[in-house]
Amino acid sequence: MIQFDAVHKRFPNGTTAVHDLTLRMPEGGVTVLVGSSGCGKTTTLRMINRMVEPTSGTIRVGGKDVTRQDAAELRRSIGYVIQQAGLFPHRTVLDNIATVPLLLGHGRRRARAKAAELLETVGLTAEAGKRYPHQLSGGQQQRVGVARALAADPPVLLMDEPFGAVDPVVRTQLQDELLRLQKELSKTIVFVTHDVDEAVRLGDQIAIFRTGGHLVQCASPAELLARPADDFVADFLGAERGLKLLSLKTLAGVPQGPAPEGEAWTLVLDAADKPLHWASKDGAEIPVRPLKDGDSLLAALDESIASPTGLVARVDAAGRLTGVTSRDDIHRHAGQAHSEARVAA
Amino acid sequence: MIQFDAVHKRFPNGTTAVHDLTLRMPEGGVTVLVGSSGCGKTTTLRMINRMVEPTSGTIRVGGKDVTRQDAAELRRSIGYVIQQAGLFPHRTVLDNIATVPLLLGHGRRRARAKAAELLETVGLTAEAGKRYPHQLSGGQQQRVGVARALAADPPVLLMDEPFGAVDPVVRTQLQDELLRLQKELSKTIVFVTHDVDEAVRLGDQIAIFRTGGHLVQCASPAELLARPADDFVADFLGAERGLKLLSLKTLAGVPQGPAPEGEAWTLVLDAADKPLHWASKDGAEIPVRPLKDGDSLLAALDESIASPTGLVARVDAAGRLTGVTSRDDIHRHAGQAHSEARVAA
Amino acid sequence: MTIDWSWIGDHTDDLTSLTLSHLQAAMTAVFLGVLISLPLAVVAHRIRPLRGFLLGVSNVLFTIPSIAIFVLLLPVSGLTRTTTVIGLTVYTLVVLLRNTVEGLDSVPAKTKEAAKAMGTRPLRTLLTVEFPLALPVIMAGVRIATVMSISLVSVATYIGDGGLGQLFTDGFQRNFPTPVIAGVVLTILLAVVADALLVAVQYVLTPWRRRRA
Amino acid sequence: MYELFKNLGTWLTSGANWSGSDGIAHRLAEHLQYSLLATLIAAAIGLPLGLLIGHTGKGAFVAINLASFGRALPTVGLVVLVFLAGGLSMLPVYVALVALAVPAIVTNTYAGMTAVDPEVRDAARGQGMRGHQVLFQVELPLALPLIMTGLRLALIQVVATATIAAYVSFGGLGRYVFDGLAQRDLVQVLGGAVLVAVVAVALDLLLSGLQRFLFRHRTA
Amino acid sequence: ASGITSLDSQGSSSGGGGSSKGGVTIGTANFTENQVLGYLYAAVLRKAGVKVKVRPNLGTREIVIPALKAGDIDLLPEYQGALLNYLAPKDDSAEPGTMQNALTLAMPSGLQVLPYGQAADSDCFVVTRETARKYGLTTLADLAKQNGKLVIGAAPEVKKRRVGAIGLKEVYGVEFKEFKSLDSDGPLVKGALKKGDVDVANLFTTDTDIAADDWVVLTDPKNLIPSQHIVPLIADRVADDTVRKALARIGNVLTTAQLTELNRLVDKDKKDPEDVANDYARQHGLA
Ligand SMILES: Nc1ncnc2c1ncn2[C@@H]1O[C@H](COP(=O)(O)OP(=O)(O)OP(=O)(O)O)[C@@H](O)[C@H]1O
Ligand SMILES: Nc1ncnc2c1ncn2[C@@H]1O[C@H](COP(=O)(O)OP(=O)(O)OP(=O)(O)O)[C@@H](O)[C@H]1O
Ligand SMILES: [Mg+2]
Ligand SMILES: [Mg+2]
C-alpha cells in the first residue's frame, strides 16, 4: 500500500506541482493518475521513489516513510517504467532488463537468466534479447521497459505514460498484456496516462488531477463515470461517458432466448453451430459478430445496433450459438449498471 | 480534382511504398488517407506536390499531369501542412506565414498583410505574429502551419498528420476549426492521419491503406463503417464500428413527444423552460444533458442510457425544452442509418 | 622542387626512428590530455558556473605560442621529452575538454534519469552510463586532438626534440626540400593512420551504434 | 618568477614599447592583419565548400577526411616547404595559416548544415522554394550559429599561430617571441606570448558576443 | 649513417666529479657547421674510448646553456666571441688570448672552456658585388657614407649586440635605414641578400656561399669584429684528461679552410653532417 499524507510539492522556481495531496493506493491494485498536461501526475509518481522530494507531508510505501530509506535502495525495490521506455541505448535488451538485479549484486549469470525469463513474460523472443534498443519497434521497446521494471520482482510498479508513444493497435495489445501480468503477479501499480479510455480500462481506481496539482476526485472507474464530482471531471471524461460505463460490464448476467425462426431475418449457422450471418427472406446477408459472456455491454450494444434485428448472437467458449439477447435486455442491464454506479458513489 | 492512375512508388532501397494506386480525390472535398504506420500515406501525399516522384503512373491535379509542371511552382500552388508543423525556427510567425506569397513575388508589405489576415482566420492574435515558433504552444504552431499553407490561397491543401502532436482537447478544437474553414473556403483537401475517429470526423471519403502501399478500400465514412471490405478494414475501424456510424447522423429527423408527467421520474425545468435534472418521486436527482437537433445519434444514445427513463431531453437553440425522444426512436433511426449505409455501399 | 630519392633511401632508419619518436610524443600527450580532461570535464559538466571558467582557461592555454611554453618549462623539466609532452598536452586540452563536456551534455536526460530511477548511484551512473554514451563525442575529440598533436610535435624542434620536425629545420638550414617533404608526408601519413586506428577503436567500443537504421 | 612578471608588467605598460615601427601597436596591427586576412581567405574557401556538401549531402566523406588531413599538416613544415619552393615572402605564412583554418571552417559549416532539422528543410521545399532559396533562406540562417563557432575556432588558431610570420622574418607579435629568444630577453618573449593570447581571447569574446546578439531570438 | 637522430627519452647521467666514464652528451646548435663540429668531437672522443651521444639541433644559447648546466648535455662546440658576448656582453676583448681569459673568468660554475682550436669562424658583413660597386663599398667604414639608406639583415640578436648594429654605430658611425630580423647565416638572410631585400647581410666567414655567389666581405680596419676561434664548452663533471686530450687534438688539426670545405659538403652536396665529420676524422687519423 502506498499512502500520501498532506503531500505538497513546490519547485524552486515557484511552481506548485502537487497541492496538499492525501491519497491511498491499495496493495495489489492499479491506481491510475489522469489529468491534463502539467497537472502534477509525473511529480506525484516520482515522489514515491524519491526521484522528487516532497516539500512537506509524508509518503509511506508498505507502511515505511520513504524519506527514512536510502534513496538508491528504495528505487531498486520499486519498478519504474519511464515515459517512452528510457532504455539504455548502449546495452543489449537483455542487459537492460538485468540492470537492477546486477545492481543488487545478483551476479551476471543469474541476472541474465532472470532477464531471459522476463523477456518471455512480456512476449519477446530470446533473439530480441541480443539486440540493441534502437533495433526494436516502439511497442517492443515499451515491453522491454516493463520487463526491466519487473526484473527485481518489486512489489510496487510505477508506470509513467508507458504506452504513450505507440500506435493504438499496439497500445491495446500492451494494455491486455499488462492486465494479464497484473492478474498473475498482482503488483501494486501506479499508472500515469492522459488517455481516459486507458484509465478506465486499467484502473482499479482513478485519481483525476487538475492543473496546480489538485486532486479532484479519486474513485473506481464506474463511480467516476456515473458520478463525476464536477464539470471539470465530466468534461475530462468526455461526451460518451454513459457508453464508457458499459465497457466495464460484461454480458454474463444478461438473459438470452432462442434465435428467431421464420421471421424477416434468420441467423444462419454452420455445421458446428457457429453463427455465420443474418439472412433476409429476399436473400440479403448481413455479417454477425457473435459475443461471449466475457464481452462488454458496450460491444453488445454496438452489435445490436449493427444487427438488422436488434438481436445479439451469443456463443460459448467454443463459438457455438447459445442464444440471442435483445436490445431491451441490454438496455435494462445498462440502466442497472448506471444506477448501481450511482448508488455506490 | 486530384487523380491517381496506376501510380507505383518504389524507393531506391527496394521498399515499395505505394502499390498500383488508382484513386480520385474529388474537388472541394476532404479525402482522408488512413492506415497503420509505414503503409505509404505520406508517400502518396508527397507525390501530389512532387516531393516524391512516382516510379510509374500519372498524377493529375486539376486535369494537369504534375510531372509536366515546374516542381517549385507546383508546390507554391499547393498548400502543404507538415507533421508537427515544420515551421522555420528563425522566422517570426508572420514571416513563416508569408513564405509562399514572398516566393511568388508579392512584395513584403502585401505578403505580411495577407499573413496578418490569416493569423486571425486560424484564431491567433496579431501579437502572436511577432513571436518565434518556439514561443508558441504545440496547438498554436499547428495553426500557424495551416495558415502558412493557406497563404497563397491554393485550391489544394495537403495535410500530413497535422494534429498528431497535440493533446486530445486541442486536437478537437483544431478539427472544428478545419471543418469551419473547409465550409468557408471549400478547398480540395488531402488529409493523412492514423486516428480513425479523426478520419470519420473530417473525411468526405476515407482511403484505407495496408502495409506495402495497397489501397484496401476508399469510401465515405458511413459506407466504410457499415461495410468494411474485409477483416483488415473492420479491425482497423475498431470494435465500436456500429456506434461510430451513429456519430455521423444527427438527431434532426428523430421524432419527439411530450415529457412524461406523473410517472416514476419527472423532468424538472427552470423558469425559462430549460431542463435541470430528472427527479424521482422519492426525491433522487439525476443530471440531464439536453441535446439539440445538431447533436449526433451517438450522443443521444449515450444520454438515453444514462437517463433513468431512457428518454432524451431535446432543446432548441436557446436551450428551451422542445420534447423528449425515446430510446426506441433513437434505435430505429440508428438501424435506418445502418441500412442506408449498407445500401449505399 | 625535386625530391632526392637517394637521400630518402639512405635515411630510412632515421626516418623510422623519427616517426616513432614523433608518434610517441603525440600519443603520450593525448593520453595525458584525456586523463586530465576527463575529471575536469565532469566538474565542468556538473558545476555550471565552473564550465565557462575551465573552458576559458583551456582556450587561453591554447593561444600561448609554443616557444613561450617551452621557455617557461625549461627551468622545470629541462631539455627533455617531458617538456615536449607537457607543451603538447596543454594544447590537447582545448579540444578534449570541450568535447568531453559536450559528450556528457549529449547524454539524454531520460537515460540518466532511468539509471537513477533503477537505483544506480551517481558514480556508477557516470562510469556505466554517461561515459559510454558520451564516447562518440569524446572520441571525436580524441581524434581531433591526436591529429592536432601529431601536426604540432614539430614545434618542439626548438628544444631539439620534435620528431619529424627535425627534418624541417634540417631542410630549412640547408635549403634542401627533400627532408621537409619527407617530414610533411610522414606527418600526414602518421595522422591518417592514427585517425583510422581510432575509428576502429571507436567501432569496437560502441557496438550499439553499428547497425543504425 | 615574481621579478619576471613585474618586468613583464613594465614591458607591457611602458609607452615607449608601444610606439614606432617596432612598437606593440604596430606589431598588433600586423598580427591582426595576418590573422584576419588568413581567416578571410580560409572562410572564402571553407564556407562555400561546407555549404555545398551540407546542401547536397554529397562528398561529405571525402571533404571531412580532407579536412582531417588538413589538420594534420604541420604548420612549420608547410611554411618551410613553401618558402623553399617560392622564396621569401608572406606566401608561406598565408598558405600555412589558411591550411590551418580551413578544416575547422569546413567541418563546422558542414556540421551546422547537417544539424538543420530535416523537417524544416523538407518544409522549405514543400512550400515551393528552389534549391538556392532553401540554401540561403533556410539552411544558411539555421546553420549560422555553428558556422560562427567554426569561424571563431579558426580565428583563435590562426591568431595563436600567426607568430610563425616572425619565423620567416615578417612582423606581427611573433616578432617579440623570436627576437626575445634571440636577444635573451625573456620578458619580451612572454610579453609577446601574453599579447597573442589576449588578442585571441579578445577576438573570441567579441565574436561570441556578436553571435549571442545576432541569435538572441533562438532557443537553446 | 645518421645525420639526424631523435631525442631519446633518457638524458645523460652526470657521472662523478670530472669523469667521462658515464659517457658524454654533445649538444649542437641548429646550424650545419655546429653540427659538423659536434660530430667531429664525437668522433675523436669515441676514438679515445668515451661513450658519446649527439643531440643536434638544439636552438639558441638561451636554451642550450641552461641545458648544459642542468646536465641534459655535457659538451658544446662554441665560438669565442659569441660565447663571451653571451656570458659577458660588456667585455670588449678582441684578441683570442684575452678572449679566452675573459671567457674563463665569465664562466658560470660547473662549466669551463677548453683551449681553443686553430679554426675560426667569424662574423662578417657582406654585400653583393653590385651593391659594392654601386656605393663604392669595401670597408665597414664605407657604410657610413650611405647612412640611412641601407637595410641590414641579420639574426635578431645582432640588433642589440656589439658585433652588430651597436658596434657598427659606435666604431664606424654607421646607421642603417632598417634592421631586418632574419636568421643566423641561414636561408632567410642569404635569400634576402640575393633578392635585394637587404643590402648588407651578417654572415659567417666559413660560409661557402660567399665565394659561390661572389659576395663582397667588407673589411674591418678598426678590428670591431673579434676573430672567433672554435672552443669546446664543457661541463666540469665530464672534463677529465681523456676528453681534454681528444678535444685538443681536433682543435690542433682542423683549419678554417677545412671547416669551410666541410660546410660546403653538407650545405651544397647535401651530405650528412655526421658522415662528413667521420670521413674527415678518418682521413686525418683522428678516428
Ligand atoms: N524540475 C521542475 N522544476 C520546475 N517545475 C517543474 C519541474 N518538474 C515539473 N515542473 C512543473 O510542475 C508541474 C507539474 O509537472 P508534471 O511533470 O508532474 O506534470 P504531468 O502531469 O506529468 O504533465 P504531463 O502530462 O505533461 O507529463 C508543471 O507545471 C511542470 O512545468
Ligand atoms: N526516402 C525513402 N527511402 C526509402 N524508403 C522510404 C522512404 N520514405 C519512406 N520509405 C518507406 O516507405 C514506406 C511508406 O512510408 P510512408 O512514410 O509513406 O508511410 P506512412 O504511411 O506515412 O507512415 P507513418 O504513419 O509512420 O507516417 C515505409 O516502409 C517507409 O519506411
Ligand atoms: Mg508527465
Ligand atoms: Mg507519414
Automatic annotation (TrEMBL), chains A, B:
Q: Which residues form the ABC transporter domain?
A: 2-237
Q: Does the keyword Nucleus apply?
A: no
Q: Which domain of life is it from?
A: Bacteria
**Which keywords, in A-to-Z order, does the entry hold?**
ATP-binding, Nucleotide-binding, Transport
Entries under Gene3D superfamilies matching the protein: P-loop containing nucleotide triphosphate hydrolases
GO terms (molecular function) for this protein are: ATP binding
Q: Which InterPro entries match?
A: AAA+_ATPase, ABC_transporter-like_ATP-bd, ABC_transporter-like_CS, P-loop_NTPase
Family per similarity comment: Belongs to the ABC transporter superfamily.
* Name by which UniProt lists this protein: ABC transporter ATP-binding protein
Native organism? Streptomyces cylindrosporus
The taxonomic lineage of its organism, from the top, reads:
Bacteria, Bacillati, Actinomycetota, Actinomycetes, Kitasatosporales
From TrEMBL, chain C:
Main localisation? membrane
Intracellular or extracellular location(s) = Cell membrane; Membrane
Q: How does it sit in the membrane?
A: Multi-pass membrane protein
Q: Which UniProt keywords apply?
A: Membrane, Transmembrane, Transmembrane helix, Transport
Indicate yes or no for the key word Methyltransferase. Answer: no
SUPFAM superfamilies xrefs: MetI-like (SSF161098)
Q: Does the keyword RNA-binding apply?
A: no
Entries under InterPro entries matching the protein: ABC_transp_perm/SBD, MetI-like, MetI-like_sf
Q: Which residues cross the membrane?
A: 20-41, 53-73, 79-97, 133-160, 180-205
List, alphabetically, the PROSITE patterns matched.
ABC_TM1 (PS50928)
What's this protein's family per the entry? Belongs to the binding-protein-dependent transport system permease family.
Q: What is this protein called?
A: ABC transporter permease
Origin organism is Streptomyces cylindrosporus
UniProtKB/TrEMBL annotation, chain D:
> What broad class describes the main subcellular location of this protein?
membrane
PROSITE patterns xrefs: ABC_TM1
State if Ion transport is listed as a keyword: no
Sorted alphabetically, the keyword list is: Membrane, Transmembrane, Transmembrane helix, Transport
Reading the lineage from the top rank, the first entry is Bacteria
**Residue limits of the ABC transmembrane type-1 domain?**
28-207
Q: Does the keyword Nucleotide-binding apply?
A: no
Question: Which Pfam families is this protein grouped with?
Answer: BPD_transp_1 (PF00528)
Membrane topology summary: Multi-pass membrane protein
Q: Transmembrane stretches, by residue range?
A: 32-53, 153-174, 186-207
Q: Where in the cell is it found?
A: Cell membrane; Membrane
Query: What is the similarity comment for this entry?
Result: Belongs to the binding-protein-dependent transport system permease family.
Among PANTHER family, the record links this protein to: GLYCINE BETAINE/L-PROLINE TRANSPORT SYSTEM PERMEASE PROTEIN PROW, POSSIBLE OSMOPROTECTANT (GLYCINE BETAINE_CARNITINE_CHOLINE_L-PROLINE) TRANSPORT INTEGRAL MEMBRANE PROTEIN ABC TRANSPORTER PROZ
This protein's name: ABC transporter permease
Source organism of the structure = Streptomyces cylindrosporus
